Amino acid sequence: MSETGGQSEPQMTPASPNETGTQVVDTSATPTPAPELPKSPEAPVAKITYATQEPDAGWMGTIQSLMATVVIAVFVITFIVQAFQIPSESMQNTLLIGDYLLVDKEHYGPGGHWNWLIPYQKIKRDDIIVFRYPLNPTQHFVKRVIGVPGDHIRLINKQLFVNGQLQTEPYVIHSERIIRPFRDNFPVGDRAQEHLNWKWSEEIDRLTEEGQLIVPEGYYFAMGDNRDESSDSRYWGFVPRENIIGRPLFIYWSVKERNPAEVDVDDEQQDGKLTRLASRVSHGWKDMRWNRMFTLIR
């Protein structure tokens, strides 16, 4: 308290000189102000927009979407690809019974001015083709091209010669060792027991020179890879160019053929519809050829 009775003011104590004569000043009570930084311009505030819900198209929009899907599917199936199933063993082991194929219908297109857009290909020997059966165009066959227009075809004891050259055919199999005269020595073998169509028999005589069948312009000679079990050009004639649909691309599904007798036995052993259904699903899963799915066909 001061002598006058008021509260005393704090007194500043002068700094004492140090040994070098320099005064030490206490600066803790008077901090140095920080330098002012330049203010950055204010960032513009983003304008938030809210999406508005599209009006419900209703049943009419659903029908339109469905129709568009159907039109696209029909276009693809009609003009680009088509699915086929292998019903016989004539192309074994290249194609098996129960293989499901997608066929490229544009591969052998007309070409010409459209080649810059779609790379059409010519039909060549060894190509596998799908075509309408010449004797019944409602049926579809799949075989391998053996001869193109102008080729000379001949078989001698199951061995194929084209234009006088023995062909190497690693894909061909033979299920029989015996030699059948017409089948294995085409076209000069005895055809009396083959029950050939008389028109085809006459055509063989007309187009055979020096024991070789000449493939005419606009036609192809096709045979199955399973030579002893194939109904092919040897028996019914050439494949017209206009009958050829396309080239198989790949196997998209494959399931083993079950013996009908085994199916009947399995059904008899089941005591109810649900049990039989479960059994068929189980067998179907086991019968799938998973290693063949999505394999290219060559």
What's a quick, concise take on this entry?
The protein is α+β, with helices and mostly antiparallel strands.
Description:
With 298 residues, this protein is α+β, with helices and mostly antiparallel strands. The chain has a domain at 77-254: Umud Fragment, subunit A. The chain contains six helices and 13 strands. The protein has helices at 58-79, 181-184, 198-207, 233-236, 260-269, 273-287; strands at 81-85, 99-104, 128-132, 140-147, 152-156, 159-162, 165-166, 208-209, 212-214, 219-223, 239-240, 244-254, 295-296. The strands form two sheets. Strands 1, 2, 3, 4, 10, 11, 12 and 13 form an eight-stranded antiparallel beta sheet that branches. A five-stranded antiparallel beta sheet has the order 7-6-5-9-8. A hairpin with a 2-residue loop joins β8 and β9 (212-214). The chain is globular and about 75 Å long. It starts with 57 loop residues before the first helix and ends with a strand.
Descriptive key words:
disordered N terminus, globular, 298 residues, 5-stranded antiparallel sheet, 6 helices, 8-stranded antiparallel sheet, Umud Fragment, subunit A, alpha+beta, 20% strand, 13 strands
